[in-house]
Amino acid sequence: TSLSLQPVITPELVQGRVHLKCTYGHPPSKPHPQYVVLWSRLSSPGKREQIHRETTLESFSYVEMDGANLRLGDTVFCTVTAFTRDTPEQQSLPEDSKGFYAGIKFLPESLQIAEDGKEHVLTVLSTVPIACPGQDDSCKITLQLSSEDLDSQSPGPPNIALSACQVDLLQAPCSESSCAAATVMVTAVTDFAQDGNRVSHVRAEPVGRRDLLWRAHAPKDVKVTVRDLPTGNCYSFTDPHIITFDGWRYDNYKIGTFLLCRSVSRLFEVHVRQWDCGGHRSATACNCGVAAQ
To answer: Which residues form the VWFD domain (predicted)?
Structure first.
């Protein structure tokens, strides 16, 4: 029968090396139980590959993230079966842990933002502890951040802007599926063009690490969808003809400095200066200067 062993995987540093620990409950009804622990990783969607198998008296089992059999970026499971020494042929039903993703990942895994100037928080975290491989290395992983516009047909402004090009994941105690975390702000670039919704990817690459475990790891990109917002336009041109945001047309032949527009919701206004440009023949004013805040 099922013994409700409830195996759980947690990350741990053992002698400075990254390990995963599978812990499970002790069945109260069974004296001196033994356990068969099977470690596996997701090799492709829906398929698992066995990494390690052991029989133990302990209510826990360790496996090392060695960069060969078990690599960063793997989703790992432990499956536990219990039996007693007296009746080894009578085994409990195997019980699976939840899949544990070991590596660096972004939260959220995808973003939908608009061209409204708002900043959005993107967290990059490591689900396993940051090891210190040598005396000269500080306990951190430096990540190089970059963005790529997937549907950009021609050179132009990027879809998104990041608040930092590099972040550091500093060694910290593991808690709630995070052993180190950093944040970066993502903002959609307002391009004043009606070009539809556009897609970009944000990627992170570890730099400067010599150890195999981290050097070969590339976390999954974040998909950022930028929603196009219509842009208002107003004009003042030649001897000034003015077209407002809502399409009304005016003429202003006066000489002086005028408030062309002011936002009622944010700190934004435009002043325009008009000088005499008609001479003695006609009273005509022309735009000769502009100031925007």
So the answer is: 232-293
**Is 175 domain-assigned?**
yes
Most confident of the following: 96-100, 113-117, 231-235: 96-100
What CA–CA distance (Å, rounded) separates 177 from 101? 9
- From residue 266, alpha-carbon distances to 141, 201, 261, 262 in Å are 40, 30, 12, 9
**3-class SS of residue 212:** helix
Domain boundary among 67, 102, 137: 102
| C-beta of residue 85 within 8 angstroms of C-beta of residue 37 | no
Task: For residue 178, give the DSSP letter.
Answer: B
Q: Over the Cα atoms of the chain, what is R_g?
A: 31
Count Cβ atoms below 10 Å from residue 65 Cβ, excluding itself: 22
The residue range of the domain holding 240 is 235-292
Cα(159)–Cα(95) distance, integer angstroms:
46
pLDDT tens digit sequence for 160-218: 999 999 999 988 888 888 999 999 999 998 877 777 788 999 999 988 776 778 877 88
Q: Which of 53, 68, 102 is the last residue of a domain?
A: 102
Question: pTM of the entire structure?
Answer: 0.75
- Quote the CA–CA distance of 168 and 70 in Å, as a whole number: 24
